[in-house]
Amino acid sequence: KEITEIAALHLANAREAIISFGQGCEGEPSLNAKDLAAAIREVRHNHTDKGTININTNAGYTKGIMEMVDAGLDAMRVTLFSTIKTAYNSYHQPYNYSLNDVEYSINYAKDRGLKVSLNLLTYPGFTDRESEASSLIGFVRRNNIDMIQFRNLNIDPDIISQHFPSGESCYGIANLLDLLKHEIPYVTLGSYSYPVR
């Protein structure tokens, strides 16, 4: 009830209104899909069709994502360190889900008209590696991603080099951006979410 009251008031009255479930410090919102889906459904069925309802998620709990999408979610931002399974697993340490589940969640959302962004945790010397860039482009094409949001990954360089040693060519971040603009020109490159309603 409280979620519905706050969400409906903001969505109905604010300019370019967005509400988002889940931030980096809040845990995975899809694990609370039952309550959040009920709130979304109540807002959309009985209060307003205005504004954008977004989820910030790792998209690994597909059942919860599906429940929220079906309730009326408008947009989804998926946090990723890498689209290569070994690197993804090493960084995210997924429990009871895999990168394949993440892709399934994305495709379920896209098939139902949601806008999907990647929240790409970006680290120079890793994100701009040739293998990472190639995999990212393939992932974006395969899953019809709408936007890539770049997030500086604040991590100890010694720690990341221990887990992800260098040894391959890097484009540099500026060149990576140019490559993405050339290879996937229809994808928005940015740093924050836009309203979709």
The oligomeric status of these chains comes to single chain
Low-confidence stretches: none
Query: Between the first and last Cα atoms, what is the distance in angstroms?
Result: 23 Å
Shape: globular
Estimated share of beta-strand residues? 15-25%
The assigned structural class equals: alpha/beta
**Over the alpha carbons, how many angstroms does the gyration radius reach?**
17 Å
Strand runs, count: 6
Please tell me the overall pLDDT. Answer: 95
Task: Please trace the helix and strand order, writing H or E for each element.
Answer: HEHEHEHHEHEHHE
Distinct helical segment count:
8
Could you give a short account of the major beta sheet?
Answer: 6 strands, parallel
Order of strands, widest sheet: 1-2-3-4-5-6
Helix content: 40-55%
Give the secondary structure arrangement, pairings included.
Blueprint: H1 2-13, E1 18-21, H2 33-46, E2 52-57, H3 62-71, E3 75-80, H4 85-92, H5 99-111, E4 115-122, H6 130-143, E5 147-152, H7 157-163, H8 173-183, E6 188-190
Parallel strand pairs: 1-2, 2-3, 3-4, 4-5, 5-6
